[in-house]
From TrEMBL:
Keywords tagged on the record: DNA recombination
InterPro entries, sorted: DNA_brk_join_enz, Integrase-like_cat_sf, Integrase_catalytic, Tyrosine_recombinase_XerCD
Matching SUPFAM superfamilies: DNA breaking-rejoining enzymes (SSF56349)
MF (Gene Ontology): DNA binding
Organism per entry: Lactiplantibacillus fabifermentans T30PCM01
This protein's name: Integrase
Lineage summary: Bacteria, Bacillati, Bacillota, Bacilli, Lactobacillales
Keyword set includes Hydrolase: no
Amino acid sequence: MYYNVEPLRTAAEINDFLAAVGRGRYGDRNRMIVLVGINTGLRMSDILSLTVDQVRGHDRALIIEKKTHKKRWVYLKNLRPALETYTAEMTTGAPLFVSARGQQAITVNGVYHAFQQAGELLGRQDIGTHTLRKTFGYHYYQQTHDIAGLMMIFNHANEAVTKRYIGIERDTLERSLDQFQLGLG
């Protein structure tokens, strides 16, 4: 089976995914994971490493990325009202996203399973933990056309890698082929 994680390209796809992950006992947590991911572009391992005191009352947080070991400022200002509501009853120093088992953070694998269930509910097989990062990148690029800034955010070495990662090359190719036909008319 061919499997490729894609960004959520429309507001309707984002809203449908938020509704799907928001179902069930851990719906609030899962929705907040999605909101943090699509608004920051962080990798899932970095999202799940966040603590309550890193985000509560802050417009930005300094993290060290797990994959690259580089320091990165994460912009939280637009998420702050949602984070304040989400963390209102949480203990300072606790993981931001707690697992079902107790006080430790949910694992990337746990989020993957929740996303797979949401994907099944939506009839999609292209949803995974990288969907959030790709969605951030796709919409950031669509709104700003700042590929250099996005490359810096993602720590990518070149433009082609970034465009391929967020699905821009595929969109451009499909648009160019939309009216292309030979021998059919």
